[in-house]
Amino acid sequence: MKYLNCLILFCALLLTAPVATSANSAPQIGTVAETIEAGSYVYLRLEEQNIWIAATRFSVSNGDQVQYSSGMEMKDFYSKSLDRTFESVFFVQDASLANRDTVKMHTAAVMKSGVGTPSRPAPVKAPAVGDITPLAEGKTISAIFTDLTSLEGTEVKVNARVMKVSKSIMGRNWITLQDGSGTQPDNKLVVTSQQVPALGDVLIVTGIISTDVDIGSGYKYKVLLEEATFSPGFE
């Protein structure tokens, strides 16, 4: 029952949390370039913005214009039903076919204010091997993945760059780190924390190692660094 409640909460957050975009309250508009149906959801790639959105399934075809309200961006989202990972997808509310009057009003508002639809922040450059100095009494990301069994439940420190930040999911913030060590997919460490670090910062991150974590909805982690705290790091 506890697991089910967590899963329900997680799904609710996906549909209700706001995207960090403009304060414009007008509906967002996009032209559908690609459509994928999956269970009760439909995934739409919008041509102008070159983003994916996901919404409760409705009748829509390529070339249609759709309107939707804000939602939450999920990065590296794995859809179990599609067996596909989306680099970025916005889970949005109230998606529907756009009527002509709404399209006109949206176009006029964009031209007047310069405010558009959700866009991805500039990507953070991943560190190369040797870019970030390992801690003398800490671990590299590569070493964490290598020593998972012995590190389970222990506190570790890592000096790494903040690559992604997803706020307020299941009561925590989710942060992706890289330090230039390891090979894909074991070159990224996901951290959970009550703190919100800045994208691109190099920080010393301290947390507790958890392994084989399944939070539902297709999200499984070989390792999480939980209850993390941050302090200034160095390159």
Walk me through the topology.
Elements lengths: L1 H15 L11 E11 L2 E6 L4 E6 L8 E15 L4 E14 L2 H14 L27 H6 L1 H4 L3 E15 L2 E7 L10 E5 L8 E15 L2 E14 L3
Q: Indicate the structural class.
A: alpha+beta
Overall average residue pLDDT: 78
Q: Compute the number of helices.
A: 4
Strand content: over 45%
Total count of strands: 10
Question: Judging by the overall fold, what is the CATH architecture of the largest domain?
Answer: Beta Barrel
Taking pLDDT < 50 over at least 5 consecutive residues as the criterion, the unreliable ranges are: 1-25, 101-119
Q: Helical content, roughly?
A: 10-25%
- At the fold tier of CATH, the topology name of the largest domain is OB fold (Dihydrolipoamide Acetyltransferase, E2P)
Question: Biggest β-sheet: count, sense, barrel?
Answer: 5 strands, mixed, barrel
Give a verbal description of the structure.
The N terminus is likely disordered. The chain has a five-stranded mixed β-barrel with strand order 1-2-3-5-4. It has a five-stranded mixed beta barrel with strand order 6-7-8-10-9. β6 and β7 form a beta hairpin. With 235 residues, the chain is an alpha+beta fold. The chain folds into two domains: 112 residues, OB fold (Dihydrolipoamide Acetyltransferase, E2P), CATH 2.40.50; 92 residues, Nucleic acid-binding proteins (OB fold (Dihydrolipoamide Acetyltransferase, E2P)), CATH 2.40.50.
What's the short story on this structure?
With 235 residues, this protein is an alpha+beta fold.
